[in-house]
Design brief:
173 residues, alpha+beta, 3 helices, 17% helix, extended
Length: 173
């Protein structure tokens, strides 16, 4: 986190760098040469230069430290973190996008919010989940305990579609 509180968004409280380990595996599909998935995260990882540093490899697969992204925790997302922590196991969502050459996938976002993770699944992005390491789960749980505020549900009043005489509308057009 920055030493200057004025430079931080008011809602963001905690950040943690996470190394994103991406697996590239030979595909059996006739439509794709490679299959990509997030294999793991590395809590507290430093920057990776150049991106895509090979960590392990085998016949037809590689694990690379593809990027280091900031896991950001926000006060207004505590409900999404609580939902995630109630799952067994809790997960991190990692958003992957095609790289500039179009032959690989690059991690661009990591989140612990079940709501935010679900929101990314509605587009062209590839969204992968990975089990949340215990030390990150403890950090997220402490964050929720410190910042969560229950907001009571308030039912909204419905708009009238008919005037008091039972006619449709509600005014001149």
């Amino acid at each position: 986190m920055s030493d200057d509180p004025a430079s931080e968004p008011l809602n963001r409280i905690e950040t943690l760098p996470l190394g994103i380990v991406v697996e590239r595996r030979a595909s059996t599909s006739p439509w794709a040469e490679w299959f990509w998935r997030v294999a793991a995260v590395i809590p507290g990882a430093g920057p990776v230069e150049p991106p895509g540093r090979v960590l392990r490899a085998g016949e037809g697969w590689t694990h690379t430290h593809a990027a280091t992204l900031e896991l950001e925790l926000f006060r207004t997302d505590t409900e999404g973190y609580r939902l995630n922590l109630s799952q067994d196991p809790p997960r991190l969502w990692v958003v992957l996008r095609p790289d500039a050459e179009g032959d690989g996938m690059v991690p661009v976002v990591v989140t612990a919010s079940a709501h935010e993770g679900e929101g990314y699944q509605v587009g062209m992005d590839v969204v992968e989940t990975v089990p949340m390491p215990p030390e990150i789960a403890a950090l997220v749980r402490d964050f929720v305990d410190q910042h969560h505020v229950d907001v009571p549900f308030e039912k909204r009043e419905r708009k009238r579609h008919f005037d008091k005489d039972g006619k449709r509308g509600g005014g001149p057009r």
